[in-house]
Structure formats: structure tokens, C-alpha cells
Input
Amino acid sequence: MSHAHAGGHDHHHDHAGHGHGHRHPHGPASYDRAFAIGIALNIGFVVVEAGFGWLAGSLALLADAGHNLSDVAGLILAWGAAAAGRLPPTHRRTYGWARASILAALANGMLLLFAMGALALEAFQRLQSPEPVGGWTVIAVAACGVVVNGLTAALFMSGRKADLNIRGAFLHMAGDALVSLGVVAAGALYLRFGWGWLDPAVSLAIAAIIVAGAWGLFRQSLHLAFDGVPDGIDLAEVHAWLASQPGVSNVHDLHVWALGTAETALSVHLVMPGGHPGDAFLVAVASGLERHFHIHHPTIQIELDGMDDGCAGPAGLG
Output
């Protein structure tokens, strides 16, 4: 039996010749300025929106201000997690703090669900006794929200495909821009028809939209927190691809999990009766896993006869 580690962090000795000391800084590492600007813009807008929402008696504006405040908390969490993920590994934390981004996404999802539950309760109460709303104030402030949230989303646009944390920030802010646009429309309709029920109804719609997105964020981050296979990776396809490599007679003890929101790890045992294939094979497998499945940290164990070490794998995958 032979062990071989292919691809990995800068703290791994790499037997596959694939270790170029990469920590994958393509995600949050290069977005410090975007986080800082986005947080500053949203804090300023929360103050303005909450103040004018109170003056105008608009629950929709107050609801959106509360949501934007949760956005600030979410951006701070994401930024802190991004910074923590860049801390170097230690003897006690051999993967560093990469998982901080997963925990931040989980906390952000829980925060959003709680905030929107409180909003929905207030909106139901307001529906029973509608109050007058300052329509032009609602339109002006919400229009500012379209601009602020749109600009913040644009800051994260280039990195939305590389990292779950960055993609979450982008989608969240882009969604907020659309929600603010909806508040503008609600203010215009109120001015035109005087529908007192429209403001709380729009706030309920806002809550429903945000809960839908927050539930997906919560579900996915909870899945990753329990070492689930990241979305977009089909474990059966990975198993079949490994089994198709030359000299491999069997694949077992296959595990794929997320180190953080931008990095995926794999460990597997390959049974190769013909003998150890050498470093060139390991380099090719590591490169193929990264190219086909975006798995950057594979650990491969070569076995000549196959052995059962008691590590149960997924049903049907050996």
C-alpha cells in the first residue's frame, strides 16, 4: 500500500509534484476594498432609509432598512471570514481558518431568516390597520437604494463565479436593488390610487423574496458545515472518472468536502494491481480533478490489493 498526496496547501508536502503553494486567493482575498466600500455605502443608506421611513410612516422603507442592516452584518461576516481564511495554517489548525467562510454564510442565513420573520409579523399587524404613507419620500429613498445596492453588487460582480461567499454577496445586493425598485413602484401606486394596504403588502412580498434566498443560503451552508459534497459536484461522476484512469481496478473510500466556500478537498483509495503508477500519474489525476470538477486538494492513496480500513463510503460507490 502506498500513500500519495496530490495537489494541496502550501503546508503540505506534495508527492504528486502538483504543490505550487497555492492558497487560492482568487476569492475574497482580492475583495477587501469592495467589502469596505459596500459596508460604508450600506451603513449610510440604512441611516437615511430608517430616518425617512419613520418620518414617512412607511413600513416598506423601515423593512428595507432593517434588511439592509442585516446586509451590513452579512458583509461584515463575509469580510471577516475572508480575512480569517487567509490566515496561515498552524500545527493545531492544519487547514487554517478556511471553514470560517462556511460558518459566516450559515450565520448570515440565520440572521436573514430571523429578521424577515419579525418583518412579516409587523406587516400582518399593519395590514389590519393601514396608515398613511409619504409616497414621494418612499419613492426618493427607495430610488437611492436602487443606486446603492446596484453599485455594491457591481463591486462583487467579477468574483461571483469563483467563490460562494462572493457570489452570495453579489446575489444579495443585486436582489436588494430589485427589491428597492419594487418599493419605488409601490410608492408610485400609492400616490396614484391611495391604497393604504399596499405598503405592508409590499413589505410582505419583500420578506418572501428574501426568505426564499436566505433559505437557500442557510441550506447550502449547513450542508457544507457537515462536510456535504458541494453543489455542482456529482460524486458518482467523480467516482466514474477516477475508475476510468489507466491501471485503476477499483475505487473506494471516496470523500469530497468543502474546506471553505472557494476550496474543495477529496480523499480516495485507488486499487492498482499493476503496481504504483509513479508521480506522473498522480500529477495527471490531480490536474484532471481540478480541470473537470474544480477540486483543488486531492489526497490519493494507492493500494496494490485493496484493503478494508473500516471507512464506510456512500452506498453504491464502493
Q: What stands out?
A: The first helix runs from residue 32 to 56.
